[in-house]
Amino acid sequence: MAAPAAARCVRKFWGPRGGPCPLRAFTTIIPRVSQVDNSPDFLGNVPHRRHPGVLHLRSVRLPAKLVKAAQLLVEQSTVHGLKDQVVALTNYLWSRKRPLEASELQMRGQQLEQQLREKVQPRTADASSPLTDAEEEKLQRRVLNRLRKTTYHWEALRYTDELSLVYMAARLDGGFAAVSRAFHEIQKRVPAFAPRTLLDFGSGTGSVSWAAHGAWGQTLQEYLCVDSSAPMLALAQRLLQGGSESPQAPLFPGVYFRQFLPVSPKVKFDLVVSAFSLNELPSLAERRETIRTLWRKTDGFLVLVENGTKEGHQMLMEAREIVLGGGDKVAHDPREAHVFAPCPHHLPCPRLNPERPLPCNYLQAYHPLPFRWNPELKEELFSFLILRRGPGAGEEPWPRITQAVLGRAQHVHCHLCCADGSLQHTVITARRHGRDLYRCARLSHWGDRLPVTMPPGDAVPGE
């Protein structure tokens, strides 16, 4: 299922605005929350629709020069059936899973062999005779055939010149929108952050550099794009040159392309990003080592973005656990890791319920590349994780709105991830919670933070 189709399913399930049906039996009042703030002038002259927890972007537009360069590359290409290839690649990337570990595959094989053996050779009171060589060989063949049918077969993508162009047409705009939303969170909450250096791991088409230039172009002096695919790097460089085949001056300076990460642990970057790249790594061990390497090179913020699927969310939670758990033999930076977004806590993710795991994802509207098969407006369903160097002092533990807000007559339904590590389906009214909180909640959107205060005794230890 493509990301836009998944977004439509979300809206179909949750209603036209994405809100759940108002089932009173499953709703609760926000625990231990009174007003937005104890002071009546909390908002000052700021209207409720711009309260300090607002983080969403209405819609994202790609830079005009990037759009023009992408159109020029498509016009110059000789790829046949580009639309069909774009749809096929989009669906494939959206449904892609992590590679299965050898230990897990072995365990599945042993369990399957035991089940099939019990059918072929039922247990009896006395020990039955062993299978013949022919029967044993037939059993092993059945085990292998069943494993092939029930096990996801992960393959590394080899980006040729043609596949790189298809990827650009399929994912340049959606990836740019998701990363722009993550960068906007940092801009809004830490306006003093002015990065000078950027590392983009798995840079692909270079959309991260374009988004970073749009956010911090006044201060960024170095953009290091790392991707193992030489054709993809060449495509990103052509986009940066306006799509021209002949060497041209880049549309913005300071961009460097490499196929490998810098070796020295002393080389650090103010902003480190990995967008839609973790699933390209062939094993959990390699993902762990890559995350540790990226965190070592982080001097300010580490931004991770993946598809808004269960697989994407679980990979981000793997990364979160790796960074928060430490484990480096040599501490290159004594500053602690702090979860900046979207989690308002350092506790286990409440959505990773073993019985029914749900992805923590968000929607971002954007204007896609103006190809004939694209609508005027699309939505990107994505998951993200932002980690920050330092203890996070002064950060408000405001809850995150994890689904679309549902406004009803004189009350509002909100689904919140709270600082105590719990998920709350809350009903907010002006009479019970005050007009400020009610208006702020009613005008909030999926992904915003709700500016509510918690009594000192209810703070989570260590947060």
UniProtKB/TrEMBL annotation:
Associates with the mitochondrial ribosome (mitoribosome). InterPro entries: Mt_RNA_Methyltransferase, Ribosomal_Rsm22-like, SAM-dependent_MTases_sf. Mitochondrial ribosome (mitoribosome) assembly factor. Binds at the interface of the head and body domains of the mitochondrial small ribosomal subunit (mt-SSU), occluding the mRNA channel and preventing compaction of the head domain towards the body. Probable inactive methyltransferase: retains the characteristic folding and ability to bind S-adenosyl-L-methionine, but it probably lost its methyltransferase activity. SUPFAM superfamilies: S-adenosyl-L-methionine-dependent methyltransferases. Belongs to the methyltransferase superfamily. Rsm22 family. It comes from the Eukaryota. This is Ribosome assembly protein METTL17, mitochondrial. It holds the Pfam family Rsm22. GO terms for cellular component: mitochondrial small ribosomal subunit. Its main location: mitochondrion. Keywords: 4Fe-4S, Iron, Iron-sulfur, Metal-binding, Mitochondrion, S-adenosyl-L-methionine, Transit peptide. It is found in: Mitochondrion matrix. GO terms for molecular function: 4 iron, 4 sulfur cluster binding; metal ion binding; methyltransferase activity; structural constituent of ribosome. It comes from Chelydra serpentina. The keyword Transmembrane helix does not apply. One of its GO terms (biological process) is translation.
